[in-house]
Design a protein that fits this description.
Layout lengths: L5 E6 L1 H19 L9 E7 L3 H8 L6 E9 L12 E5 L8 E9 L3 H12 L4 E10 L2 H4 L5 E6 L4 E2 L15 E4 L13
Parallel strand pairs: 2-3, 2-5, 5-6, 6-7
Antiparallel strand pairs: 1-9, 3-4, 8-9
Helix pairs in contact: 1-2
Length: 191
């Protein structure tokens, strides 16, 4: 059972949902003056981690927007340290002349944002704003420019609300840490 793998709840679903609402209000205030027929808005969700966060966020944005996805791989399999972000799949059409809000689950080494922001600009986006639900309190993350942050969390490995370990645990409604022994073991496969 997945439940028995949980060590601590780091952020409860209630806290996450309150914060997502606040972020949506902030984003709406900032972007609504600019979103018009002349400058369209595309929300770019980094798959698969940002899927849950982004789906909650966009439903609280009363703006005319389109959604695109990009797939980046940084944690192949059971690794928990980024091996450097690589673009796996992207949808760049329709970005030219518009604004982009890039949404990711967590800012860790910063390599995902460093890879994607210039790519989006090179495909013609006028402005790229960035939004992450979580930012780890580590120097590389704190030094990476980002426009909207949900929560700063300790530098430990977390799963749930879209975040995975070996592609498992994304469906947990809370953000949690895993018991020692789960990471690096084969237990995830038996979840
Ligand atoms: P960065 O490119 O190193 O900033 O890392 C971003 C990506 O690494 C995120 O989109 C996540 O997919 C993954 N990641 C980083 N830290 C964690 C974590 O604690 N749990 C699960 N995934 C993580
Ligand atoms: Mg990710």
């Amino acid at each position: 059972m997945m439940r028995s793998h949980i060590d601590k709840v780091i952020l409860s679903r209630q806290r996450i949902s309150r914060r997502v609402q606040e972020l949506a209000e902030e984003i709406t205030r900032d972007l609504s003056p600019h979103v018009s027929r002349e400058s369209h808005l595309t929300i770019v969700s980094v798959m698969t981690g940002a899927m849950v966060f982004c789906s909650d966020l966009v439903r609280q944005l009363p703006l005319q927007l389109r959604i695109a996805t990009m797939r980046v791989s940084s944690y192949p399999g059971i690794a928990t340290n980024t091996q450097g972000a690589k673009l796996v799949e992207a949808q760049f059409d329709g970005l030219a002349g518009g604004r982009v809000l890039l949404v990711d689950d967590i800012l860790d080494s910063g390599s995902t944002l460093r890879l994607l922001v210039p790519m989006l600009k090179s495909h013609g986006a006028l402005e790229v704003k960035t939004c992450v639900l979580l930012r780890k309190k580590r120097p590389e993350a704190m030094a990476t420019p980002v426009d909207y942050v949900g929560f700063d969390i300790p530098d430990e490995f977390v799963v749930g609300y879209g975040l995975d370990y070996d592609d498992y645990y994304r469906n947990l409604p809370d953000i949690v840490s895993l018991k020692p022994g789960i990471i690096g073991g084969e237990v995830g496969r038996r979840a």
